[in-house]
Design goal:
alpha+beta, Beta-lactamase, Methane Monooxygenase Hydroxylase, Chain G, domain 1, 2 domains, seven-stranded antiparallel β-sheet, three-stranded mixed β-sheet, 16 strands, globular
């Protein structure tokens, strides 16, 4: 990968080198992570790229164009796709979801039941709006939250990031039968909301979600290795996925040679189904940094991205005040939530170096990205360890990156 001169872009090269030393000593040599890739850029130009470990348990070497399951880093892509349709006035943020997905016309809030006991009829919910899906204030949940009877019903119905076994119609039908955790707009809860949003993109555009992405996002941005089925004809570039195991080395939970990612996706999960490379996702982040444009490709308007990265939580709250989620990809203190991204609203409360207005997200296999519009820095980090809450590497990377920045735009 061609790199710009880090020193001329405001970084101390010796301090940047400490990042690789840290990853090697703390995560690779110790066996905590099987592999990693890190790309840091300023003004869209990469100033640091490094890779570590092996692609597969059999020792296959890591490669620059390795394919990763980016899981919930799919969500910002889906959110951008939906906002493209908002820009065309095909839908509005305050439209009821039931306008596009009629199964959501009579949603109920949980009042009792679950497991072997049928759910109680429940209280009628406030109409769910598309803004509720984008902000994760819809009342939906994830089965892996492992907190309530609603979560258990999601697990039974296999509603967390499905790939095969149901189509989008069947998905919405199954989801609409389960009560909501709360009435839309009342709380924040990490959920399958973006999967529902992806189905809405399909209905509004008349295209399968992956086809919509390819036509309106990936092809214009020249993201040639990203898609729901991107691994099928690039199987040699797909790595294994591992899971954390207490007191032992990570174990493989999705072998690259037998991965479900090598089968065509029946359901295109807008919340977590994409495969990508670090180079492709860097291009996506650079588009975000440039307020919706990369090279000559305009993906969304600057004001649209400004709206997406503003805090939409009530009373400008951060997630600690409004979240009831047992798990998410956000660091709650000092972070609000926009239309598809967590956004830093109070850097001091994050207890990390950060800029107000920085936005970010990650995936359950410990992938991560952030975009800092003030310092004009982007970072993409790739690995394949489940779950992303295992280690504090995202916080550590941010600290190391900002510690290497010696010419700041903030003052």
């Amino acid at each position: 990968m061609k790199l710009a001169d880090a020193e001329s872009r405001g970084f101390d090269p010796e301090r940047l080198a400490r990042i690789d030393d840290f990853i090697t000593a703390q995560y690779i040599d110790t066996g905590r992570l099987p592999n990693a890739q890190l790309l840091i850029a300023r003004d869209g130009d990469p100033v640091h790229f490094s890779q570590f470990g092996h692609l597969r348990a059999d020792g296959t070497a890591m490669r620059e164009d390795a394919l990763f399951r980016i899981a919930s880093m799919t969500k910002p892509v889906t959110s951008i796709a939906f906002m493209q349709l908002v820009e065309q006035c095909k839908v509005a943020l305050d439209d009821p979801v039931a306008r596009v997905l009629p199964k959501f016309a009579d949603l109920r809030v949980y009042t009792g039941g679950g497991g072997s006991i049928p759910f109680a009829p429940g209280q009628r919910a406030e109409p769910m709006r598309f803004v509720d899906l984008l902000t994760h204030m819809s009342g939906l949940t994830y089965g892996f939250q492992n907190r309530t009877s609603i979560d258990a019903a999601y697990r039974d119905a296999r509603l967390d990031m499905p790939r095969r076994g149901m189509n989008s119609d069947e998905y919405i039908t199954a989801l609409a039968k389960i009560p909501l955790e709360f009435s839309p707009g009342e709380r924040w809860n990490y959920s399958v909301s973006t999967d529902v949003l992806g189905v809405a993109v399909e209905r509004l555009s008349g295209l399968k979600l992956g086809d919509y992405f390819e036509r309106h996002i990936f092809a214009p941005l020249e993201m040639t290795d990203t898609g729901f089925d991107a691994a099928i004809d690039r199987a040699d570039r797909l790595g294994d996925a591992w899971a954390y195991t207490p007191r032992d080395a990570p174990r493989v939970i999705d072998s690259a040679e037998r991965s479900r990612m090598l089968e065509p996706a029946e359901f295109h999960s807008g919340g977590g189904g994409l495969i990508s490379t670090i180079g492709d996702y860097h291009r996506f982040c650079t588009m975000l940094l440039n307020r919706g444009m990369l090279d000559k490709a305009r993906i969304v308007a600057p004001k649209t991205l400004d709206l997406m990265t503003a805090n939409h939580l009530p009373d400008d709250a951060d997630l600690t005040r409004i979240s009831r989620s047992a798990f998410s990809e956000a660091s709650n203190a000092g972070s609000g939530f926009g239309l598809g991204f967590a956004t830093v609203i109070d850097p001091a409360r994050t207890l990390m170096p950060a800029s107000r207005g920085e936005f970010y997200w990650g995936g359950v296999y410990s992938t991560a990205f952030f975009v800092d519009p003030v310092e004009r820095i982007t970072m993409v980090f790739m690995t394949q360890l489940y779950p992303s809450s295992t280690y504090p590497i995202r916080r550590q990377l941010k600290t190391l990156i900002y510690s290497a920045l010696v010419r700041s735009n903030s003052r």
